[in-house]
Design goal:
The protein has helices spanning 3-6, 14-25, 29-33, 43-65, 119-133, and strands at 8-11, 67-72, 75-78, 80-83, 87-93, 96-103, 106-113. The protein is an alpha+beta fold and 138 residues long. The strands form two sheets. Strands 1-2-3-4 form a four-stranded antiparallel beta sheet. Strands 5-6-7 form a three-stranded antiparallel beta sheet.
Length: 138
């Protein structure tokens, strides 16, 4: 099996990233809705909208271009690298994966949230990771 066949890379779901970016950009609207800011908007309000708009666009740009999870024969990468030889078990927990790791002779558990993945990607990630690292059924 070649490396191209065993390497899997997953990116953030575009609708989820766009939804979060819009929430960030429009957060100051809440200040109008709760009555903390008077109507009509003034220069500080426009500056705040501009800054939160930039922050929302930067959030989307960072998350749409970079892979969030990678799986190959060396191990699993999701925020940090988990070598394959250290992963003892992987199981699905809600919309996340629970990894049981053996590091320095000690067992520890790590929860990896997959809330960023689309439903199809989530299903595929769970199949790949639990198929490779999950406990065999008796």
């Amino acid at each position: 099996m070649s490396e191209a066949e065993t390497e899997h890379v997953f990116f953030s779901s575009k609708p989820r990233v766009i939804h979060m970016a819009v929430n960030i950009a429009l957060a100051p609207v809440l200040l109008y809705l709760v009555g903390l800011w008077p109507w009509p908007p003034t220069l500080p309000h426009y500056v705040t909208f501009f800054i939160t708009g930039l922050i929302g666009m930067r959030y989307a740009k960072q998350r749409l271009g970079a892979p969030r999870l990678g799986l190959d024969e060396k191990g699993l990468y999701c925020g940090e690298f988990y070598p394959a030889e250290n992963i003892r078990n992987a199981e699905r927990v809600m919309r996340a994966l629970k990894l049981t790791l053996m590091e320095d002779g000690q067992v520890r558990e790590k929860i990896i949230s997959l809330g960023w993945a689309s439903n199809a990607d989530f299903t595929r990630i769970v199949e790949l990771v639990t198929g490779r690292f999950g406990k065999p059924s008796k």
